[in-house]
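A brief tutorial aside. Many learners find it easier to grasp structure tokens once they have seen a single protein encoded end to end. The record that follows does exactly this for DDE-type integrase/transposase/recombinase. Read the sequence first, then the structure, and try to relate runs of similar tokens to stretches of the chain.
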Amino acid sequence: MRVVGARDLDTLVVVSAEGEYFDASIKDLEAEAVGQVRSGTSVDPKRAAKVPAYVEALGPLLGNDRNTKAAVTEAAKKLGISTSAAYDAIRRFRETGTTDQLPPPTRPGGRGKSRINPKAQKIIEEVLEATVLKRGGAKPRKFFREVKRRLEKAGLQVAHATLADRLTKIPEHRWTKTRKGYNETRKTHDPIRDHYPEVHRPLEVVQIDHWKADIEILSDDRLQVIGRVWITLAIDVYSRMVFGMHVGIDAPSTTTFAMAMINGMTRKDAIAERYGLEWDNPMCGKPERLEADNAREFTGESANASAAHFNIRLKWRPLGQPQYGAHIERLNGNLADRFKDLPGATGATSTERGELRPEMTAAFTLEDVTKHAWMIVDEYHNDVHTGIGMPPLERFRSYYFGPNGQKHRLPDVFVDNLQFRIHWFPLVKRSIQRYGIRIDHLDYYSESLEWLVRNRKSYGQLEIRRHPFDVRVIYVKHPDRKAEDPDATDQDEWIPVHVRQLNFPEASIHELQAARREALRRKREPTPELLSKIIDEQHRHIEEAVKKTKSAQREAARQQHHNRIRKEAPVPAARSGAVPRFVQPTSTPASTQSDEQPVRNGKTQQAPAEGSIAAILAGISDDDVEAMFE
């Protein structure tokens, strides 16, 4: 309230904040004011510091009923304020009677500061923390609705535009950290404190990664869409040439990593011949350092053992520092852009997928996609790369050859044979027992293990490499070959060992593990006999359902892809002491078999049991024998 006049010496006329006038005795006003401080008031240190200057400049004018404009202007100049501001100071003194009110009150805001009521500011901050500034925060409209409800409850009011401005002024770093977490904030907002080390020669550093191609593919008969493919890609950082690539249906694993490394270290002539490509692709050899992310297939025991054998230093990218994988990420993006124009392209979002309709436009099989990917790689090798200012192929060649001939030693050439591939096959460790070795419920034994079985307590667990596309054979690393045979060579280091059940079907590790899961689902012990039966059932089911469902088509395509790799892989040479791998003759369908049994010496002979030696010999004709000796 404010005093505006007086009735007499004991009674004053006051006006309330609502504009109502009434009489109040001085005695009552004094009793109400004694010892009380108005709620919400606080000491204003900035205002209190100005009081002495205002008293010195305006003091002579405070006791006068009237002051000339010249006198007020002169006092205002001393204070560095306008004349109207000086009149306001005198008015505040006359209304309150205290010199503390001479300086104007300090505004709650100011340039660059908020002028919102402190209570309202507190409410806004609390609602921000409870709604939008938290992990997976709500949308802004919930913030507006909740803050307005609480402000109305507190008798306060803040304009909607002010609240919207409050949201926009939240630092982006704080917004990302509270809603997405520290790791995402570090990736997108924190400064890059380091740079990628300089690379001086080809194969000094190779980066490898996987990506899922944005394209739907068809089954080999082109009747069904079976899904997208995975591509494992490796790049030579110095030249930017593609070091190796594997295209397949299998998700990233130790096997896909191994296939990409086998492809990268060996020459690419077989690929050019297979797909009818005319190119110049000399990339091959052993990388000095292999950089990858922290996925299990890159950090596992198998990857470490393979890299150690070839003296390749594995290095995993530092978390939160994407510049260490920028080269492979850029190559992935380059290929992804090229795939957008292909039939069956899915696009990067659900909206793009709806517009492109990949199920309707798909035209490539797995083989088609693989060939096209290599064609893109060849084009990429011969285009100018902005990062190095020349084509990758020219960069690679210019390191080894110049105008005056050869400058540096050429990279090593690795022959794609079984001995080479074994070192990239999935690795497991098992101890040898009297019955041999057991892996995934299958028992493996060979006469070549006899010495190891007798001395098994001296060596503990042995290194074993599994053929990823044929579980019927494993390769055991002999821990001390010279002790058994002083004349042995390095070629005899790995012992091929076959599964005891000779009629076990041809299957990949993926199929064997799927059969094991099916056996456990049936609540049955996954014995070799049951696993063999389930694998056969799965093969028949795929053949029957191959034209019915997309998932069956995908499994059929996976099986055909594994079969192609299996056939292309080098065949192991015969080794003394190894159990021969027999090929079972194709049995005659039940519908075409005769009920009559062969008769010899007047007695009906029983048909030899399936899988027996007699059945095998019975399936060999005279023509086959003659062909063997020719």
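Self-check: The CA atoms of residues 609 and 615 lie 6 Å apart. If you spotted this yourself, you are ready for the next section.
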